[in-house]
Design a protein that fits this description.
Strand order of the largest sheet: 1-3-2-4
CATH class: Mainly Alpha
Number of helices: 8
Number of domains: 1
Order of helices and strands: HHEEEHEHHHHH
CATH topology: Arc Repressor Mutant, subunit A
Shape: globular
Bound molecules: zinc ion
Largest sheet: 4 strands, mixed
């Protein structure tokens, strides 16, 4: 298997139950996760660490759900933008932006992060198990209500095929 196939395989393995174990996913990808007391304006960063492996640093002052999102966002950079993680790494400010990598890639990373934490198949399962609004979804997936709301809106069409649910979105 190529490195990309292995990555996809590992991610897939961690998307079989919710809440997604994002720390376990990072570890399986050989990405070390550390917490550091960073300024409020920094969410986290990803950088080369050791022999082709990477390290993610998250802001220890942030909430648990925020840290989980930051880790997912940095994993997204690892998957999508690995070649752009230079000597200095990628550092994300509070709005998940690194000026050198550009807004389009940051939006890609945010989108991908949301799919890592709330994959469609699991959201659908949760929905069928009675998790039917964004607050409950946020709890079930251990994400902030804002992330759950955005992701549910994005996935709206998945549920629109079931007319009885349409009104909830
Ligand atoms: Zn970023």
């Amino acid at each position: 298997m190529s490195r990309d196939e292995i990555t996809v395989d590992i991610i897939d393995r961690f998307q079989r139950e919710y809440p997604v174990d994002i720390y376990g996913m990072a570890q399986a990808l050989k990405i070390r996760v550390v917490e550091q007391d960073l300024p409020d304006t920094i969410s986290g960063k990803i950088e080369h660490w050791w022999r082709g492996d990477f390290m993610i640093t998250v802001n220890s002052r942030h909430s648990r759900t925020r840290k989980r999102f930051t880790i997912a966002h940095e994993i997204a950079h690892y998957v999508l933008h690995r070649d752009l993680i230079g000597e200095d790494g990628i550092t994300d400010n509070a709005l998940y932006r690194d000026n050198r990598i550009g807004d389009i890639r940051e939006r890609q990373a945010n989108r991908y992060a949301a799919t890592l934490l709330m994959p469609k198949s699991l959201v659908r399962r949760a929905w069928n198990e009675g998790v039917n609004d964004h607050q409950a979804m946020a709890q079930a997936f251990d994400v902030s209500p804002a992330v759950a709301e955005i992701r549910l809106r994005e996935l709206g069409s998945v549920f629109w095929s079931r007319p009885q649910d349409t009104l909830l979105f």
